[in-house]
Amino acid sequence: MRVARREVLGLWGGFAAVLSLSRQDVCAEEVVEIRMQGRADGSHVWFDPIGLLIKPGQMVRWTNFNPGNSHTTTAYHPANFGRPRRIPESAKSWDSGYLLPAESFSLTFTEQGVYDYYCIPHEQAGMVGRIIVGEPEAHDGWMEAVAASRDLPDEALRAFPTVEEIMAKRIVRRV
């Protein structure tokens, strides 16, 4: 039996098309939502979830669901008001700016490691979060960023879920 070159190319072309469609579906499904929340009286504010484990290349979208407050998602990084670095060395810093109710901000995480972030006006109230991307190796320096605690409010430090808890549960919620 002889297979024509055209048939082989057609099969490979069809295979490639199926792969590209399935990859698009996977990407669309991999957006993870983090809600910026708060009580109506403003007495308590938080990110939900507060801890998250994702894969490299996943997108995270923060949306402000708090009708009475504006919020930010801001990386712990010297570029943001001289804050200590608590994200991987090779990762880019971010700051969403103030998000009004129903506004959102998205970011795709490509570098493995631990990313700690906070809400500028509510850091003192413990409105912080932690994202772990991939399964970073302990020798990659990712724990050093997590251990950096200088210049952070006590309430913020108490609020962070542990790396071990996030790795075990994948999603950590605190309300």
Descriptive notes:
The chain is of the alpha+beta class. The protein folds into 2 domains: 1-30; 31-172, Cupredoxins -  blue copper proteins (Immunoglobulin-like), CATH 2.60.40.420. Helix content is 25%, strand content 25%. The strands form 2 sheets. The chain has a 5-stranded mixed beta sheet. Strands 2-1-4-6 form a 4-stranded mixed beta sheet, with no helix packed on it. A hairpin with a 6-residue loop joins strand 1 (32-38) and strand 2 (45-48). The chain is globular and about 40 Å long.
The CA-CA distance between the termini, in Å, is 67 Å
What is the number of helices?
4
Amount of helix? 25-40%
Order of helices and strands: HEEEEEEEEHHHE
Largest sheet: 5 strands, mixed
Please tally the β strands and state the result.
9
Unreliable stretches covering 5 or more consecutive residues: 5-28
Q: What is the CATH architecture annotation of the largest domain?
A: Sandwich
Might you state the CATH topology name of the largest domain? Immunoglobulin-like
Assign the CATH class of the largest domain: Mainly Beta
Average pLDDT, to the nearest integer? 83
- Which structural category do the helix and sheet elements fall into? alpha+beta
Oligomer category: single chain
Strand content: 25-35%
At the fourth level of CATH, the homologous superfamily of the largest domain is Cupredoxins -  blue copper proteins
Global Rg: 20 Å
Strand order of the largest sheet: 5-7-8-3-9
Number of domains: 2
